Amino acid sequence: MLSIRKAFYSCPVLISLSSLSAFAAFKCGPGFSTYSVTSLHGVAGQGVRCVKFNNPAIVDGGITGAYWYGEGTWGALKYRHIGTAFKTLKDFNGNYTNLAYSTDIYGNGENTAGVYDNLHLVPVSGYNKIDVPAWGEEWTWQPSGVHNGYTSTLSPVKSCGGNLETYAVSSSNNVTAVGSVRCAIRNSYSVLPTMWYGEGNWGTANYRHLGFVQTDQNQIGYGTSSDVCNISTNVCGTTSVDGLTIKPLMGCFQQVKYNVSGQWNENWTGTDIFECAK
Q1: Are 189 and 142 in a shared domain?
Q2: Are residues 32 and 136 located together in one domain of the fold?
Q3: What is each CA distance from 86 to 117, 197, 271, in whole angstroms?
Q4: What would the pLDDT profile of 68-126 be if each residue is shown by its tens digit?
């Protein structure tokens, strides 16, 4: 799908960034590599990518084994999304190539609502600098873990938008989970999501996080999650690798529902229907 942002390449929108950069900073957190984002084509704006690598590799010229949370401004637009980069079969000879896709979160003041399914993360200087040609943007690693040129102006996530599954969250051990939501990428025929963004309140603590799922042969998921730490009063930590056990509680053509145990005690209930494989 054509990126909405691509329309700004030939006609950049010039906006003042002084109001955005004053006391500006965005901290992804200890579970992420933090990248600043700039346009390769002179489009005004700033952004951040909180990237979680899981067995990363460079395959056929592109990065695989990455999951990310991204937000920022692009011209006059505000955006927020989650994405992943992975390896996939290139041909019938068993050769692999790289592929990435991203889905916008919207309904909370964001201006973009796209799904971008043919992206490539191209290493320019190893993992220190990454280009995304389809978006015309460049990611630059921030060793401090803080992007000092960007501060978020986005509202808290209450709506995932129409391109992601939305899961309501309840506690398995009677902890109050006010306003908690999970925005998940899941193929309609897959029993488990690939990744999710979560936000809300747990007891007396506010949190934001990004997680991904590995699925075993028994269709049980093992999740890894890291908190996005740009708000100093929020929870800021990470689970161990595969520290969450995500068990489907639905059958064919039933409402999507999961129990999340291990280092968390949660139930996720979606509005979508699990259609099973054809």
Answers
A1: no
A2: yes
A3: 12, 18, 27
A4: 999 999 999 999 999 999 999 999 999 999 999 999 999 999 999 999 999 999 999 99
**In one letter, which amino acid is 157?**
V
Is residue 124 in a domain?
Answer: yes
> Domain span at residue 267?
165-274
Same domain, 92 and 137: yes
Same domain, 170 and 142: no
Query: DSSP letter string over the chain?
Result: ---GGGGGSSSPPP---HHHHTT--EE--TTSEEEEEEESS-----EEEEEEEEEEEEETTEEEEEEEEEEEEETTEEEEEEEEEEEEE-STTS-EEEEEEEEE--SSS-S---EEEEE--EESBTBSEEEETTTTEEEEE-TTSEETT----PPPP----TTSEEEEEEESSS---TT-EEEEE--TT-SS-SEEEEEEEETTEEEEEEEEEEE-TTS-EEEEEEE---STTS---BPPTT-EEEEE---TTEEEEEEEEES--EEEEEEEEE----
Pull the structure tokens for residue 231. 């708000």
| Range of lowest pLDDT (15-19, 20-24, 137-141, 231-235) | 15-19
Q: What is the pLDDT of residues 181-209, one digit of tens each?
A: 999 999 878 999 999 999 999 888 899 99
Total structural domains within the chain:
2
In a domain, 10, yes or no: no
The phi and psi torsions of 4 (rounded to 5 degrees) equal -60, -35
Say if residue 189 is in the same domain as residue 138.
no
pTM summary value = 0.89
